[in-house]
Design a protein that fits this description.
Elements lengths: L2 E2 L2 E2 L2 E5 L2 E7 L5 E6 L6 E3 L4 H6 L5 E4 L1 H15 L5 H19 L5 H24 L15
Antiparallel strand pairs: 1-2, 3-4, 3-7, 4-5, 5-6
Helix pairs in contact: 2-3, 2-4, 3-4
């Protein structure tokens, strides 16, 4: 398994509320990617490698693959608008969240499970769409490592 500064790859982070991932490359190196909230795609994050590998704490957190997927989809659902199946599913999540938010209560187990399942599905769909468009940071397989 590849490592960067002692961090096993792939590795997932939250850097000041932005999802960041470090992944191994076929040549034995690594690539760093951050979510672009305006497009839902991935931008190079090479400038954040030292921050995320050495600065965990404060506003930088290590995330599991599952938590990473959920955070990415939470942000995509919040910031992106469009048409098609993915956006209909984002709207479904907003409808599922609305009663709990209005009532200022935690999600029920059923609501949480539905939201988590839909977000895992939209992650795969969005990432597959990004791959077809040539986004080098796209990786739908992350959702399969979700726990």
């Amino acid at each position: 398994m590849a490592t960067v500064d002692g961090v096993e790859l792939p590795a997932y982070f939250e850097h000041y509320d932005t999802p960041v991932k470090l992944v191994a490359t076929p040549d034995g190196g690594y690539a760093a990617w951050r979510l672009d909230r305006s497009t839902g795609g991935w931008r190079s994050a090479e400038d954040l490698v030292d921050d995320v590998t050495g600065g965990v704490g404060g506003e930088i957190y290590v995330r599991s693959a599952g938590a990473f997927v959920q955070h990415v989809e939470q942000l995509r659902g919040r910031y992106l608008r469009g048409e098609g199946e993915i956006f209909a599913l984002y709207e479904t999540v907003r409808a599922l969240e609305a009663p709990a938010i209005a009532e200022r209560r935690p999600f029920t187990a059923e609501e949480a499970a539905l939201i988590k399942g839909i977000r895992r599905r939209t992650f795969v769909m969005f990432e597959e769409q990004l791959q077809r468009a040539g986004d080098p940071g796209a990786d739908p397989t992350i959702a399969s490592t979700d726990s």
